[in-house]
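Input record, target 12 of the design panel.
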């Protein structure tokens, strides 16, 4: 029986259907900020175009990651989440499935190699080793060492194998979330996506999305467990353990959390202060906007990403850094607009008896020379 992990504000776990998979690398994607009006809408003409500044991935040592997992393991709400009762139903396993499925022998061997029961990932309880199960098995192969690390720490108070399976399922849900080209509107999920951006950057997040689409396609076309093993190993190599353990750390921090408790957990994680600083260089506004609930949606598509925000909320916190991140504070990524009205909508009022003005005159010659986004 697969462990039940609710979709609500905890974490997206049941797999979402994604669009056509593709393993090719797309050109550099564009990041836009959409400023919502009173009706919650934003036209493309009023979107801001972000020019991200160079910013590295936040580096975490093995010791820091281990300490992060220990910190999360002391969170009583997270412990309660992992201890919640499973929802079970009646499933009948056809003999032909148990004896003849092409994937089951290889799956049993994987579990045996790890010294675990034959159904160590809880995949055989519903009568079909379907595409969802293949993706879970591939995820387990890709990031087994990282998943084992969090299971070991959380396993001091909760069954470690249960932790392993629940985190693995949450990871699969998060990967599917990145690959689904529809707006992400749940506040905890937008916070999780943008926390990942803060730590590893947009290019890496886009790379994870593309890598997951390739893994999904491989799982759909697989004819044996060896194909799943190869797909998992490719994905693990593509993303790397350094990024993988950051993503696992953030996903676990989001499990069973509200935006407030997720923010509290983030603030206790290694590297977060630095990640919050780098977020401004990556996105053009402060991570404080995210934690304050100012982000309404994130849409990740083949062409890039659109972050929908409340007008004025972004700029009210633009210079608010979270703690001392160490190192040189990176510059905030510039944001350009197609019109002066779009700029004013984003910025909000200039203040009592004040008006916004251009430094460079917006005449046709300057528009032709610099472009709309550099003038506004």
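The sequence produced for target 12 reads:
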């Amino acid at each position: 029986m697969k462990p039940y992990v609710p979709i609500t504000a905890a974490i997206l776990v049941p797999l979402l259907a994604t669009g056509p998979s593709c393993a090719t690398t797309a050109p550099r994607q564009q990041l836009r900020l959409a400023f919502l009006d009173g009706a919650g809408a934003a036209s493309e003409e009023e979107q801001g175009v972000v020019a991200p500044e160079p910013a590295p991935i936040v580096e975490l040592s093995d010791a820091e990651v281990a300490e992060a997992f220990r910190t999360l393991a002391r969170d009583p709400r997270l412990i309660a989440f992992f201890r919640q009762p499973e929802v079970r139903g009646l499933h009948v396993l056809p003999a032909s499935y148990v004896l003849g499925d092409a994937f089951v022998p290889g799956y049993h061997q994987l579990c045996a190699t790890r010294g675990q029961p034959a159904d160590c990932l809880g995949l055989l309880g519903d009568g079909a080793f379907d595409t969802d199960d293949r993706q879970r098995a591939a995820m387990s192969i890709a990031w087994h060492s990282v998943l084992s690390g969090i299971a070991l720490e959380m396993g001091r108070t909760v069954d470690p194998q249960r932790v392993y399976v629940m985190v693995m399922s949450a990871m699969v849900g998060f990967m599917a979330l990145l690959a689904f080209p529809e707006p992400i509107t749940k506040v905890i999920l937008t916070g999780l996506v943008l926390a990942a951006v803060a730590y590893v950057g947009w290019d890496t997040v886009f790379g994870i999305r593309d890598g997951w689409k390739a893994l999904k396609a491989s799982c759909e076309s697989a004819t044996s467990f060896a194909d799943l093993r190869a797909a998992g190993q490719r994905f693990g190599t593509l993303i790397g353990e350094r990024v993988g353990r950051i993503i696992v750390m953030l996903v676990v921090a989001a499990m069973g959390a509200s935006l407030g408790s997720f923010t509290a957990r983030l603030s206790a994680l290694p590297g977060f202060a630095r990640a919050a600083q780098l977020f401004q260089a990556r996105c053009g506004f402060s991570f404080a906007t995210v934690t304050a609930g100012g982000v309404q949606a994130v849409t990740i598509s083949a062409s890039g990403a659109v972050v929908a925000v409340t007008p004025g909320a972004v700029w009210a916190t633009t210079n608010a850094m979270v703690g001392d991140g160490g190192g040189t504070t990176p510059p905030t990524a510039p944001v350009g607009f197609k019109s002066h009205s779009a700029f004013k909508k984003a910025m909000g009022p200039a203040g009592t008896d004040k008006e916004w003005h251009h430094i460079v005159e917006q005449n046709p010659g300057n528009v032709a020379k610099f472009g709309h986004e550099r003038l506004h």
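Residues 160-179 form the longest helix (20 residues).
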